[in-house]
Design a protein that fits this description.
single chain; eight-stranded mixed β-sheet; 7 helices; disordered N terminus
Length: about 220
């Protein structure tokens, strides 16, 4: 029996890309059990960069992001992917673990919608990596995954992430007041959205036209 039937969870597992930015080729690939050390090293090192924007978790940051916690997280992400509710991916830059991109709450039927979220290591910020990864993820959503709408939320004071979302074509739809418990308090978030009708070609095509990424030479 093939547990990766398209009818069950289209679009996972998959390897996406590459597209090129100045820092190197950006690709997306499924999470792996052996990602524990790289995941934990970045998460612990970049706590001050990541924690202010992430949902409040149970327990200390060090415990939640220790390598020993990765197997259970990986297993949970994989289970959600297998049932078609999520697509958990690693962002690689030049073959190295550099962050994560997750497509979650995938709903079929008349809605055909999901949310998308991401994080990138601090030392790679501002180099177009999140923008490139997000474009690859969105094209996957509107292509093989067969979604009609993708949305994201971002805090009004997270200007860097807002710029990434604008770069790929998200439009602002409204303010969600006290939407999510982030960094120990209920925070307002901007809701942004995109539907397949708003894309001329692909999202990566848009970035190529804007000079933000290049495609590999075949």
């Amino acid at each position: 029996m093939n547990v990766f039937r398209v009818s069950q969870h289209p679009g996972w597992p998959a390897r996406l890309g590459p597209v090129h930015v100045a820092a190197g080729p950006v690709t997306l690939r499924p999470v792996r059990l052996r990602d524990a050390a790289a995941w934990s090293r970045i998460r612990l090192r970049d706590r001050d960069h990541l924690e202010p924007w992430e949902p409040t978790g149970r327990g200390a940051w060090e415990a939640r992001n220790h390598a020993s916690n990765w197997p259970s997280l990986w297993s949970s992400l994989k289970a959600e992917a297998r049932r078609g509710a999520m697509i958990p991916l690693v962002i690689e830059v030049d073959g190295a673990f550099s962050g994560q991109l997750t497509i979650g709450n995938i709903v079929r039927g008349a809605l055909r919608s999901a949310w998308i979220g991401y994080w990138v290591s601090k030392d790679l910020g501002g180099q177009g990596i999140a923008t490139a990864a997000l474009a690859l993820g969105l094209d996957h959503c509107f292509g093989p995954v067969g979604l009609h709408r993708v949305e994201a939320t971002v805090r009004p004071d997270n200007h860097a992430s807002q710029a990434v979302l604008r770069n790929v074509g998200f439009r602002e739809e409204g303010l969600l007041r006290r939407y999510l418990d982030v960094d120990g308090a209920w925070r307002d978030h901007l809701l942004v959205g995109m539907t397949v009708e708003e894309i001329n070609g692909t999202v990566v095509d848009r970035l190529v036209r804007d000079g933000r990424v290049t495609r590999p030479v075949k």
